[in-house]
Amino acid sequence: PPSPPPPPPSPPKPPFMPRALACACNTDGMSGDVSVGGHVGCGDFLGDCSPFCYVAHPESCPTDQPSEAYPGAGWADCELPDGELDPYKCWDEDVSIEVVLSPFTFLGWRVPWWVIAAAALGATVLFSLVSELCRRRRRRAAAARARRPTRQSAGHA
User: Fold this and answer.
1) Span 61-77, mean pLDDT?
2) Three-class SS string for 61-126?
3) Do the beta carbons of residue 43 and residue 25 sit within 8 Å?
4) Model's pTM, two decimal places?
5) pLDDT reading at 32 higher than 70
């Protein structure tokens, strides 16, 4: 008896895309084939001190979160450069005011440490401290979002 015909060849696999490229923030307002409402790059789009971006290739990014606002798109937390978030708005509420304003004795005067730092090294030191507190808040907020998937429906995704 004749043998059955060979099975047709399987379709070619899509080319491998490195994770760094797939999970990079979009540069054109698109996440895959989905328009994401003009959100380009990394930003604090919700004004909650938790920057995120829509990834360029969500179908190839294993770490993105599916978007609810833009089905088919994916988003991920990202880091903004120092100075891009409002340090007064992004204050870390876990740092008690007593710690921040605890005085030191300086030449016989009781002076808050931030006054000494600002006087000795300039306001850049103070800004760096507040920026670090903002980074910690963003990391905590990202962890909280990971634990609360309903947060996505509030506008992230």
Assistant:
1) 92
2) CCCCEECCCCCCCEEEECCCCCCCCCCCCCCCCCCCHHHHCCEEEECCEEEEHHHHHHHHHCHHHH
3) no
4) 0.51
5) yes
